[in-house]
Structures are given as C-alpha cells and as structure tokens.
Predict the 3D structure of the following.
Amino acid sequence: MQKVIGTGLRAIGAVSPRLGGRLAFGLWRRLLARGQVRDSELDVHMAARVEEVDGAVTYAWGDGVRPVLLVHGWRSRASRYAGFITRLLELGYSPVSYDAPGHGDSPGPIVSILGHQRIIRALEERHGPFEGVIGHSLGVPFALYAVKEGIAAKRLVMVSGVADFGYLADSFCRALGLGPKVNQRLRREIERGYFDGDRTIWNRFSVATGKAPLLVVHNDEDEVVDPVQAQVLLRNYGEQAHFLPTAGLGHSRILQDPAVIAEAVAFLQDSDVPEGLDLSA
C-alpha cells in the first residue's frame, strides 16, 4: 500500500508540487490506527486514576509523591509505559501520563506540539513539579519543548527520540520516495495547517541546549527513528546529555526491555550518572 501511495504522490508531485504537498499533508496527519491496550498492560492500565485535561484522557498512579511524567509517541498510548510505571511505583514515584488527542482513549482530532505543551502544563499544575520526564519517539520533542518553555523537571530520559523537527517531514517524504519540491510544499502545508504559517518552527521545535541532566536512549536497529537522531539530540542538548546505546531492540520493544527500564529509572534516582553510560558523546 505504501508503495502504491508513493507512486501516486510522486506522479502528482511531478506535475504539481503544490498539489502533491497538499495531498502529502493530508496523509501525514492521518493517524490511521489507534493503539489498543495490550494484555500485558491491562493490570497497570486499570489501576490508574483516570481524569481529563484539555481534551486528553490522563492517568495517574501512586500517592502523588515524586511525580514522573511519561509522554508517548505517534500511534501509541500511555499504557505502553507499563513496565516503567511498575518500576517507578516500586521505588516510590507517582507516574503521570496521558493519551494524546486522537490516540488511545482520547477523542480527536490530533494536536500539534503546542497542544501537547498545553496538556503537559495542565498536568504540571495538577500533579507537578515533576521529579522527571520520560519521552518516547515523537513524545521526545513534545516533552523537551515543554521543558524548554518552563515545565519543571529535575531529570529527563528520552528514548528513541526525534531531535530535528524537520526530520518528521524528511523521513515521511523519504519513505514515499517524494522529492525535494514536494517536501518543501509539505513543509509549507504543515506551517500553515498547524502554526499560522510560521516558518521558524523547524528550528523552534528542534532540540536545543538544556540545563536538566538528560539520558538519551536509542537502539542501533531502530526502524522508525534513525539512530543518527540520537547523536543530533546529544550534540544539540549539550554537556548535560548522556548516552545509553542499546542493540537489537528496535523502536518499540525498547520500552519493554528490563535493562533499559532499570538504567532509565536509575538515572532519575541518582544524583550521579549510572555506571556504563557513554559519556563521550
């Protein structure tokens, strides 16, 4: 199906890049499928206190002490963090998360990074300040932008994340074989459709220098977000960023890996960087 769609968009884009970009934008913002709660996540999911904030279904566990925010990615949901939530509860933290609009149990439509910022701000007002923030995939730029704009968090863990906001358009076009003219038109459609035509978004929403200690976790076989994005994140964030490379886990299984969960939560706990992390990045 992807091959057929790509062939059609390439043909249209060759004649009219503007129309190709408009059609690409319509496809780019379609969720196609919502993540469902898996059997392995059901107990954790059902144990949450469920509320609603700014159009999103939210979840909270624990007694409210030492809250940690969890931000999921595209086509995902809060329950994907079940392993993290279990470990955080064991150590006396209070995990907080949400299903993004249009994802999981939250009604649509989907929202931009600014919509996520509003939701995260509302969660901070209700549950924060946060001991830590954990993000995965597209949740990484959402989380880091919210922190950049003032969300309080002592330590950060970002897993399989996008660092360069323009990567979202570039990787989409690359997957469909769309050329630079359609890419540029897609970018204009994204700017106009979500950000009132603001062309600064590609720098504005990319990862910038940060002050809170940050652990970057990525896998060498990530089939969704190029591992090069981890290096971009490390370089852009600065000296407070540390790297935990992993192997053989791909993009999604990394969230369920016991070793990754243990190292990530240890990073949130400790005032020092855990042993075994690559500090040369």
Q: What stands out?
A: Strands lie at 49-53, 56-60, 67-71, 94-99, 130-136, 153-159, 214-219, 241-246. The CA atoms of residues 114 and 142 lie 8 Å apart.
